[in-house]
Design a protein that fits this description.
312 residues; single chain; two-stranded parallel sheet; 13 strands; 13 helices; alpha/beta
Length: 312
């Protein structure tokens, strides 16, 4: 298994169906290899679910999709114990969360009670039902989509659940050239129907191990800590980033470095990922229009420690 070859194959597969969004494709792959969870937030119809499905289709592993609706129950996600009349005992029926890649479509259309059914699974890779704990498959990644919470019929994700997502990305509208290519290329056939897996579950497991072994210097670690600490004292923010954000930013930076063909992390990796790892965890003060702008300012103002530019 050649890391770069498989990574390029997965990215190429995704880009066959997600036109003109290479940054979104790379972010999805980075989160998968960093063993995190991805939240894709944007208006309807811009390809959120297509990206999630393309990632799942690109890897030969178990993939389950959950369509979140107001009447969805927590047991539909985690599973339920059913009485077996033949054996005269309760038998556990696993829910949709028992898969390597779980696609949660329009997660904020379900009630907060149902949303919370994913909390234990996302943090501990396990599910507890009726006092019994069941381990989930490894690797395990949740790729959730949501519409902006101001839209009708949505419930904002609580802070604890947003913090469990390693990264949040937005698709945005395609540029005119990409939209024209999409119209012309999908007039007769949907390229998603012809998408085939280009990596096995063993490939992904090996790539995760390689990404985990990427070197992070003490100077780069200090750079991440300084950046996250700055969010906690910034006057424009009411809630700063958690220690979990620090850990996940480092893990994501290691995966990005590996995808880019390096065995060490640069401050550029941290800078590039800060805009998708930090903003969704922060709460701005009243009157502050954009958390993203605050993060961009903090990144620009955080000095790069000596020794962080070159691997040490």
């Amino acid at each position: 298994m050649d890391f770069e070859t498989v990574a390029r194959a997965i990215l190429g597969n995704i880009e066959k169906v997600v036109d003109g969004k290479p940054e979104a494709a790379e972010a999805a792959l980075v989160v998968l290899l960093a063993e995190g969870h991805l939240l894709i937030e944007d208006v309807p119809g811009v390809g959120k679910t297509v990206l999630a499905k393309a990632l799942g289709r690109s890897v030969s592993c178990s993939v389950r999709r959950i369509q979140f609706t107001p009447d969805l129950l927590p047991s539909d996600i985690t599973g339920v114990s059913v009485y077996n009349q033949v054996d005269r005992e309760f038998e556990f029926k696993p829910g949709a969360v028992f898969a390597n890649i779980v696609i949660g479509d329009e997660i904020n259309r379900a009630s907060p009670k149902t949303q919370s059914a994913l909390l234990e699974a996302m943090e501990e890779r396990q599910v507890t039902v009726d006092g019994t704990t069941y381990q989930l498959a490894r690797p395990f990644t949740v790729v959730a989509t949501q519409n902006p919470f101001e839209m009708e019929g949505t419930y904002a994700l609580p802070e604890a659940q947003r913090d469990r997502f390693m990264a949040r990305i937005s698709m945005g509208y395609p540029d005119p050239a990409a939209e024209l290519a999409m119209v012309q290329g999908r007039d007769a056939d949907n390229p998603y129907d012809e998408l085939l897996p280009v990596a096995s579950i063993d490939d992904i497991t090996a790539m995760i191990a390689i990404a985990r072994a990427v070197h992070v210097s003490t100077a780069v670690e200090q750079y991440v800590v300084d950046m996250v600490q700055a969010t906690r004292v910034d006057p424009d923010l009411r809630l700063g980033a958690s220690p979990r954000a620090t850990l996940q930013l480092v893990r994501a930076a290691k995966a990005r470095a590996a995808v880019q063909g390096r065995d060490f992390v640069l401050p550029d990796d941290v800078d590039a990922l800060s805009k998708v790892v930090l903003p969704h965890r922060l709460i701005a003060m009243r009157g502050v229009s954009s958390v993203e702008d605050v993060v961009a300012r903090i990144v620009a103002e955080t000095p790069v420690p000596a020794g962080a530019v070159q691997p040490g």
